[in-house]
Amino acid sequence: MSSSFRISTTKRLMYSGIAITLFWLFVALFAPLFQAMGILQDPTDLLNNIPRESPSINHLFGTDIRGYDVLSRTLVGSQAALKVVFLSTVFSLMIGVPSGLISGYLGGNLDKFLMFLMDTIYTIPGLLLSVTLSFILGKGIINIAIAVSISYIPQYYRIIRNHTNSIKNQLFIEAAQAMGAPPKTILYRYLFLNVIQNVPVIFTLNAADAILVLGGLGFLGLGLPEEVSEWGHDLKEALPSLSTGIWWTTLFPGLAMTSMVVGLSLIGEGISEIFIPSSQNKNK
Predict the structure, then answer these.
(1) In this record, what's one Pfam family (predicted)?
(2) Structural domain tally of the chain?
(3) Contact criterion met (CB below 8 Å) for 148 and 88
(4) pLDDT digit string (tens) for 40-49?
(5) Which CATH number belongs to the domain containing residue 18 in this structure?
(6) HEC assignment per residue over 81-147
(7) Single pTM value for the model
(8) CB atoms within 10 A of CB 42
(9) Sorting pLDDT into bands at 50, 70 and 90, what band is 278?
């Protein structure tokens, strides 16, 4: 009874996370249309607005210190967040999963070298590594996505490598080898589907973390160009005004970032609870 109740509660939380994520995906996709229809103001338009205007009918979320409409910048900021999330997680998947498969299957010196490299990257705090790489690569969606993705590669590598190493000696792999199947076929036809189960959990949790890292880089002035709506940069701009009672310029971008992180985290936790065997959950 308790197990079924836990799974039922987890499913509800996961569905809530999916709803939150779909909301932000909808906003990101249709924000340009809303601007064209006049429903949403241009987030780069400041000449026609009064700076630091409190929330009103004309500006539901108020305006910031530069005169930008906070509502439009908050909603349009979801575009930059989702772009960086998608690209950074895809980059880390494209490198971490194949390298983990090859390393776990072949072993030897290649496995030792990749393990040393990935362990070295893993020991560096993710935000610190992203800050360092953003200095080198500069601003821009692609550059920031690369800077964010590097710290996630070892996570995919280690879980794929360990699973590959544990099942490569099973009978169905030995049978494929005996039948003359080349290593490429064994890797992607027989091993891949057997070691990929836990990747969606890591993917969603890394996506949530990528939003926080992007916000941190934007807050430090190392994120995207200033003309791009981005929550971390907006929080940096709004922070000096908070002490003067101007709360709306920090509240709404902060809530947007928090809600997207919570939504993705709930999806990841739900997937972990439902699809990972219950025996593993009891051992945690």
Answers:
(1) BPD_transp_1
(2) 1
(3) yes
(4) 888 887 767 8
(5) 1.10.3720.10
(6) HHHHHHHHHHHHHHHHHHHHHHHHHHCHHHHHHHHHHHHHHHHCCHHHHHHHHHHHHCCCHHHHHHH
(7) 0.86
(8) 13
(9) very low
